[in-house]
Amino acid sequence: MKIVLASASSRRRQLLSRLIENFQVVVSDFDEDSVVFQGRCESYVMKLAEGKAKDVCRKLTNESSIVIGCDTAVFLRGKVMGKPRDIQEAFHMLKALSGNEHDVYSGIAIMDKVLHKTVKSFVRTTVKFSEIDDRCIKNYLKKGEYKDKAGAYGIQGYGGVFVKEIHGCYYNVVGLPLNKLYNMLSGMGVNL
User: Fold this and answer.
1) Would you name the residues annotated as active-site residues?
2) Mean pLDDT for the chain overall
3) Per residue, what are the HEC states of 68-105?
4) Which numeric CATH code is attached to 2-187?
5) What are the φ/ψ torsions at residue 133 (nearest 5 degrees)?
6) How far apart are CA 9 and CA 112, in angstroms?
7) Burial class of residue 62 in the structure, from the number of CB atoms within 10 Å of its CB (0-12 exposed, 13-18 middle, 19+ buried)
8) In the chain, what are the domain boundaries?
9) CA angle 125, 126, 129 (to 5 degrees)
10) In the predicted structure, residue 134 carries a pLDDT above the cut 90
11) CB neighbour burial string for 88-123, b if at least 16 within 10 angstroms, e if fewer
12) Strand residue runs (E) in the chain
């Protein structure tokens, strides 16, 4: 059985390679803007993950595939912080996160094309940022690390210096909660 990761993320690819040696990457064309946040963080990220997995399933001609979709988002005071559109939005995101706790949710959807079965779940991690002054934020943004990252920071990179505390799965904040994924795949009978 072929394992397929429905993601363009190099971070997810690196993390998945810790669990599975041989897998294929197929980038999803799912329109993330088609999913509207309706107040439930876990539902939102699971719908996004499922949309990505379904899109890739439709592209595959090989029927014996298991497709993994994942999406990660940052939530602060009930609002979604996705990937910043530009440097100004990234600045405002980091300014809002400064000195505050926020939640990082990842949704995972695994689709078995043989059994026509989908399993979905989510992981929540709480992250507390230190106070960050404007100069520090601007210096960070010059590094370009904020691009393509929910909440405009990467905990695994320089953005990790902003993190004062973390409660929950570190890999969830990076973008692929390994423990949850391992348990989901094992529960579907995938030998890891």
Assistant:
1) 71
2) 94
3) EEEEEEEEECCEEECCCCCHHHHHHHHHHHCCCEEEEE
4) 3.90.950.10
5) -85, 165
6) 21
7) exposed
8) 2-187
9) 135
10) yes
11) eebbebbebbbeeebbbbbbbbbbbbeeeeeebbbb
12) 2-5, 24-25, 65-76, 79-81, 101-112, 117-129, 163-167
**Alpha-carbon dihedral of residues 37, 43, 6, 94, nearest 10 degrees?**
50
pLDDT at 82: 86
Beta carbons of 176 and 106 less than 8 angstroms apart: yes
Report whether pLDDT(63) > 80. no
Are 99 and 131 within 8 A, CB to CB?
Answer: yes
Query: What tens digit of pLDDT does each residue of 110-129 get?
Result: 999 888 899 999 999 999 99
Token pair belonging to 118: 């989908």
Task: Output the pLDDT for position 192.
Answer: 83
pTM (global) more than 0.85: yes
Q: What pLDDT does 38 receive? A: 92
Compute the distance between CA of residue 52 and CA of residue 66 in angstroms, rounded to an integer.
13
What the block records as the tokens of 80 is 């979604």
62, pLDDT greater than 70: no
pLDDT tens track for 97-109 = 999 999 999 999 9
